[in-house]
């Protein structure tokens, strides 16, 4: 028998043995929306946990973007083929809470209690877990990838144009004008426009986006984001577009390439782009800073709110598998895992211990400004207007806001008429949600 044959036979026998060991473990299906390098890190979390467990096997599967994964999970539940864990972005929280009330969700606080695992909510950052607790302050889903929008900037381009990093919207406009005069074709842009320029603009200036504490207090909430402050803000951006200072680049992260290739020097989007930027940006110096302040609305910023997603547990499986889910959640929350995730992605650490570990490891010294997101979220104690948003059918409402804002950027509507229409259309969906879940 040749050496090659012996090696092949050995590898095959190891593979068979590994498969047999995995088959003996409780199988847990985990559906997520993390593609690319983020997906690879999720796979690493699962494989590391599996390697250290004698009884559990986490099978992580990428199911598309946030909307696609949530849609797939709901369809699978209706068919009785649901995963144990599904990753749902923050705008799906109210929908998942309604599902919890109908028995479709296994709340995290009860999961950990039933598994006999010590679970201390106070270990988690208040700005993160407040988004995902019920009225009795019980945590319903596990925070996993939480971020907040920041102002990314091309320092090399700003220096060449002779302008400082802007801190107010007046300064953003002035900087964009100087950048354009210096030859930049798309000085300013952003992504996730409802999240960055309606939801976070409102929270940053302590303005309610809706009644009933932005939907936290009851399902009777009604949108109010067609107020003068938001209307004037959106109209300012539209006027900047007319002057060639702003160029719209798409709904999610579509305009990322504009920033990476140097066409755009000021870009508002998630802090979680940091990991990719470190790899992809080699031609200029970049940085991040806090969101700009509209000084005509507030004298100082309040706090930003999170985006990203949490891990929801779906009901309908056996208890030994749920014990594995609880152990996996405990593993994910450990400071070592969270510090690694935070430092390599730009997502905020979900626990205070992970933040402290990152400081001890010197991360904020070697990678300056990477604590911007954490500072924004914890700038002040959240108010009813800045705690976050919790609206039924908000995935669809965001689509409405996108449509109306795109009409503004295209010059088909002014900001007032577009936001009035978005509020009217959004409120109609809120009433349908209330009727179905009230």
From TrEMBL:
Subcellular localization: Periplasm
Signal peptide stretch: 1-22
One GO cellular component term: periplasmic space
Chief location of this protein within or outside the cell: periplasm
InterPro entries given in the database record: Bact_solute-bd_prot1 (IPR050490), SBP (IPR006059)
Gene3D superfamilies: Periplasmic binding protein-like II
Superkingdom assignment: Bacteria
Cross-referenced PANTHER family: ARABINOSE-BINDING PROTEIN-RELATED, SN-GLYCEROL-3-PHOSPHATE-BINDING PERIPLASMIC PROTEIN UGPB
Protein task: Part of the ABC transporter complex UgpBAEC involved in sn-glycerol-3-phosphate (G3P) import. Binds G3P.
Family, as annotated: Belongs to the bacterial solute-binding protein 1 family.
Subunit structure comment from the entry: The complex is composed of two ATP-binding proteins (UgpC), two transmembrane proteins (UgpA and UgpE) and a solute-binding protein (UgpB).
Name the UniProt record assigns to this protein: sn-glycerol-3-phosphate-binding periplasmic protein UgpB
Organism encoding this protein: Aliishimia ponticola
């Amino acid at each position: 028998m040749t050496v090659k044959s012996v090696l092949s036979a050995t590898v095959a026998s190891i593979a068979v043995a590994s498969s047999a060991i995995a088959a003996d473990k409780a199988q847990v299906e985990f559906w997520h929306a993390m593609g690319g390098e983020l997906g690879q890190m999720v796979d690493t979390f699962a494989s590391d946990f599996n390697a250290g467990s004698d009884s559990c096997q986490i099978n992580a599967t990428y199911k598309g973007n946030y909307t696609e994964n949530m849609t797939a999970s709901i369809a699978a539940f209706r068919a009785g083929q649901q995963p144990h864990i599904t990753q749902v972005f923050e705008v799906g929280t109210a929908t998942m809470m309604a599902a919890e009330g109908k028995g479709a969700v296994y709340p995290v606080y009860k999961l950990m209690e039933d598994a006999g695992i010590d679970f201390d909510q106070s270990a988690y950052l208040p700005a993160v877990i407040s988004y995902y607790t019920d009225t009795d302050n019980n945590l319903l889903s596990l925070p996993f990838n939480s971020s907040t929008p920041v102002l990314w900037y091309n320092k090399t381009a700003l220096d060449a144009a002779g302008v400082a990093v802007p801190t107010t919207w007046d300064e953003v406009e002035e900087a964009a004008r100087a950048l354009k005069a210096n030859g930049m074709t798309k000085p300013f842009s952003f992504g996730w426009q409802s999240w960055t320029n309606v939801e976070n603009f409102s929270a940053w200036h302590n303005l309610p986006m809706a009644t009933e504490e932005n939907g936290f207090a009851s399902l009777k909430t009604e949108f109010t984001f067609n107020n003068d402050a938001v209307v004037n803000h959106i109209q300012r951006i539209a006027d900047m577009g007319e002057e060639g200072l702003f160029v719209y680049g798409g709904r999610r992260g579509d305009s990322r390439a504009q920033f990476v290739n140097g066409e755009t020097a000021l870009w508002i989007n998630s802090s979680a782009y940091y990991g990719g930027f470190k790899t992809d940006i080699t031609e200029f110096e970049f940085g991040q800073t806090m969101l700009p302040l509209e000084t005509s609305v507030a004298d100082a910023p309040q706090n930003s709110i999170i985006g990203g997603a949490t891990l929801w547990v779906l009901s309908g499986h056996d208890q030994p598998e749920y014990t594995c889910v609880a152990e996996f959640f405990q593993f994910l929350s450990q400071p070592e895992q969270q510090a690694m995730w935070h430092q390599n992605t730009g997502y905020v650490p979900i626990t205070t211990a992970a933040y402290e570990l990152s400081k001890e490891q010197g991360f904020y010294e070697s990678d300056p400004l990477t604590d911007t997101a954490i500072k924004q979220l914890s700038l002040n104690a959240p108010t009813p207007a800045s705690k976050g948003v919790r609206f039924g059918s908000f995935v669809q409402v965001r689509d409405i806001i996108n449509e109306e804002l795109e009409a503004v950027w295209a010059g088909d509507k002014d900001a007032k008429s577009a936001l009035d229409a978005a509020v009217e259309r959004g409120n109609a969906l809120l009433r349908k949600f209330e009727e179905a879940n009230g």
